[in-house]
Amino acid sequence: GLKYCHLDVDFLQDIKVRKLIRLHGAAAPAVYMAALCQVFTRGYFAQAHGIAYLVAEALNLQEKFVIDVFNSAAELQLFDNNLYRNEGIITSISIQRRYIEQCKAMRRNIDVQAMPYRLFEQSDNSNVTQKTKQPLQRDIFSSEEKNISSEEKSDSRDLLRKNQENYGKNQENS
Question: If 0-12 CB within 10 Å is exposed, 13-18 middle and 19+ buried, where does residue 103 land?
């Protein structure tokens, strides 16, 4: 596994993380980050049931809450939803890319072609491309751009407009 990984300082602005917060409250990003840390200490994937208790214990939360956050993170594609639903595996293309980048930086030799649960194709050691035509996934450790659907953009605009309207009303009442 890894002992270090970069953290995107604006991960709380990611629309998927914001939706996770909306669904589960302020503890949700801590659960997500703790899950990613558990994954990276093991490599690039982990069994959800194997780390749920560890995350819950570390954050002093109920294990059921942690599992609910994992479920939502998979639905929001913060984790690969297919692997999570079918195999109980927490990983994503961005987790795997970050893992490979870190291994290269540490000059570790890894056989990428033999990686179980691999979500990408690799034609050479430097070119990693996604296997499926899913939108790019982004995690808090990655500075990759994310593709946001027009529905998500519309939802975000509606939420922003409502927040601005509420802010205006609050200012008038003050």
Answer: middle
Joined tokens for residue 117: 């649960």
CA gap 49, 64 in Å, rounded: 11
Q: Is the pTM of this model over 0.85?
A: no
Task: Please enumerate in sequence order all residues whose Cβ is within 8 A of that of 80, keeping only pairs 6 or more positions apart, or say none.
Answer: 74, 89, 91, 92, 93, 119, 137
- The answer to whether 109 and 50 have CB atoms below 8 angstroms apart is no
Q: Using alpha carbons, select from 5, 95, 6, 2 the residue that is nearest to residue 45.
A: 95
**Contact present, 126 and 97 (Cβ < 8 Å):** no
Residue 120, phi then psi, degrees to nearest 5: -140, 165
Q: Please state, in angstroms and rounded to a whole number, the distance separating the CA atoms of residues 102 and 173.
A: 52
Token pair 């995350």: residue: 55
Name residue, tokens 């929001």. Answer: 76
For the chain, the first-to-last Cα distance in angstroms comes to 53
> Could you tell me which of 54, 20, 39 has the C-alpha nearest to residue 95?
39
Packing angle, helices 48-59 and 28-42, rounded to 10: 130
- pLDDT tens per residue across span 79-129: 999 999 999 999 999 888 888 888 887 777 777 676 778 787 654 444 444
